């Protein structure tokens, strides 16, 4: 899903010059990559069953993973450098069922993470308009991540969580059914300012 976006050759040559290590496991299309540096590291996993389980969301009954080219349809990216920590877990599916059925299923699935908001065109639909942890429908630079294979023009997004820890289901109607993406995000916290602590 996202594995092909990583320029492994460039990374390998850079790491060789900086005393870092890189490990790659798995067969083509189902590869894990682990990079370690003195300052931090990067891990990428693409096993769709593992990634789906780690999103914390149930898989819609009968849905099949959406694969594109050589991508596996899923990615778990964990990047840490000093105090910077970003983790993205994403997997995309397709079902012959209608979007309304998928949306109802995931409203229940997301409820375990708190308030659920519905977003269309980056605007809230109905109430609540934001979660109790402050997550909104706005796609600001700090809290929006674009995932390949996820619906490119989602008709609706369901969101739960806060600005740092988020769970998102992007739903798009397509001919013969619905395409949807499950995403769990752990975003970097804002650096605390002098004399203040970040929430």
List the helices and strands and how they pair.
Layout (H helix, E strand, L loop, with lengths): L7 H11 L2 E5 L6 E5 L3 E6 L2 H7 L9 E2 L8 E8 L2 E12 L3 H12 L5 E5 L2 E3 L30 E6 L3 E10 L2 E10 L13
Antiparallel strand pairs: 1-2, 2-3, 3-5, 4-6, 5-6, 6-11, 7-8, 7-9, 9-10, 10-11
Describe this structure in words.
The chain has helices spanning 8-18, 48-54, 99-110; strands spanning 21-25, 32-36, 40-45, 64-65, 74-81, 84-95, 116-120, 123-125, 156-161, 165-174, 177-186. The chain has 199 residues and is α+β, with helices and mostly antiparallel strands. It has one domain (3-186). Strands 1, 2, 3, 4, 5, 6, 7, 8, 9, 10 and 11 form an eleven-stranded antiparallel beta sheet that branches. The longest helix has 12 residues, at 99-110. The chain is globular, with a radius of gyration of 18 Å. The two termini are 32 Å apart. Residues 1-19 and 192-199 have low confidence and may be disordered.
The main sheet comes to: 11 strands, antiparallel
Beta-strand content: 35-45%
Shape: globular
Number of separate structural domains: 1
Number of separate strands:
11
Helix content: 10-25%
What's the pLDDT, averaged over the residues? 75
Tally of helical segments? 3
Oligomer: single chain
Task: Give the termini distance in whole angstroms.
Answer: 32 Å
**Low-confidence spans:** 1-19, 192-199
Helices and strands: which structural class?
A: alpha+beta
Order of helices and strands: HEEEHEEEHEEEEE
- What is the CA-atom radius of gyration, in angstroms? 18 Å
């Amino acid at each position: 899903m996202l594995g092909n976006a990583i320029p492994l050759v460039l990374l390998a040559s850079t790491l060789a010059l900086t005393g870092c290590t890189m490990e790659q496991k798995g067969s083509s299309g189902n590869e894990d990559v682990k990079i370690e540096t003195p300052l931090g590291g990067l891990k990428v996993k693409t096993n769709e069953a593992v990634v789906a389980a780690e999103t914390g969301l149930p898989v819609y009954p009968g849905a099949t993973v959406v694969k594109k080219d050589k991508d596996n349809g899923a990615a778990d990216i964990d990047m840490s450098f000093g105090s910077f920590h970003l983790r993205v877990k994403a997997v995309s599916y397709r079902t012959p069922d209608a979007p309304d059925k998928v949306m109802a299923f995931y409203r229940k699935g997301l409820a375990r993470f708190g308030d659920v908001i519905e977003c269309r065109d980056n605007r809230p639909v109905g109430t609540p308009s934001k979660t109790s942890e402050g997550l909104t429908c706005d796609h600001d630079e700090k809290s929006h991540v674009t995932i390949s294979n996820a619906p490119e023009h989602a008709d609706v997004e369901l969101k739960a969580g806060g600005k740092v820890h988020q769970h998102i289901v992007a739903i798009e109607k397509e001919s013969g059914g619905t395409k949807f993406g499950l995403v769990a995000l752990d975003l970097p916290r804002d650096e605390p300012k002098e004399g203040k602590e970040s929430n």
